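sry for the spam today, last one i promise. struct tokens for design, 205 residues
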């Protein structure tokens, strides 16, 4: 399976609390819900098409708890089937049980366990949100694809998907589109380490 990240970002790179004011108020974050005004039916269909590529989901603890609380109650939502029915894995050192079935807890060496999951047959093991987990796996070279939906808003506060001091990574743009609601959606493949150069330098023979 390929490991694929789906992340909602602001123009200044914030990924915290896109869905509601109380989604994630950790570290004093008070500006949640900034992504919601730009979501429309076109974007919902796009997310549904992504979910159609999944054979499993991988979460960090916080995102898992939010999804496990909400999605079992949303059985009439078109995206509920894959999320509720497919295998789920949660990377955590604190949870001892996970009742959103079927769920497997990953603890200990999470990188090694994700590497093992990548060897299993299937299409995509998808990470939704879970920015800290995505950062860690990207630094470890375990992410294959990133789907980034960027909202035209500067939040000015909150955790960022790519924080200062993070590990460098090269990416290759695969596709991009805009939605009628104003979102800019970019799909990247991981491409190893970044390449560097000097602007205006003469080409080397």
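last one done:
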């Amino acid at each position: 399976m390929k490991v694929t990240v789906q992340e909602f970002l602001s123009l200044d790179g914030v990924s915290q609390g896109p869905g509601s004011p109380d989604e994630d108020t950790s570290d004093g974050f008070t500006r949640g819900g900034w992504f919601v005004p730009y979501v429309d039916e076109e974007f919902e269909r796009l997310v549904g098409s992504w979910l159609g590529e999944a054979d499993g989901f991988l979460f960090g603890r916080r995102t898992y708890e939010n999804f496990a609380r909400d999605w079992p109650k949303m059985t009439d939502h078109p995206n509920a089937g894959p999320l509720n029915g497919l295998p789920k894995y949660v990377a955590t050192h604190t949870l001892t049980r996970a009742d959103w079935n079927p769920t497997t807890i990953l603890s200990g060496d999470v990188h090694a366990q994700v590497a093992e999951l990548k060897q299993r047959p299937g299409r995509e093991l998808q990470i939704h949100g879970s920015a800290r987990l995505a950062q860690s796996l990207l630094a470890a070279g375990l992410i294959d694809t990133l789907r980034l939906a960027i909202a035209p808003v500067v939040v000015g506060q909150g955790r960022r998907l790519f924080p200062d001091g993070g590990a460098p990574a090269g990416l290759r743009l695969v596709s991009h589109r805009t939605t009628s609601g104003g979102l800019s959606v970019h799909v990247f493949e991981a491409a190893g380490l970044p390449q560097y150069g000097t602007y205006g330098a003469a080409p080397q023979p």
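The two ends are 41 Å apart (CA to CA). ok im logging off now
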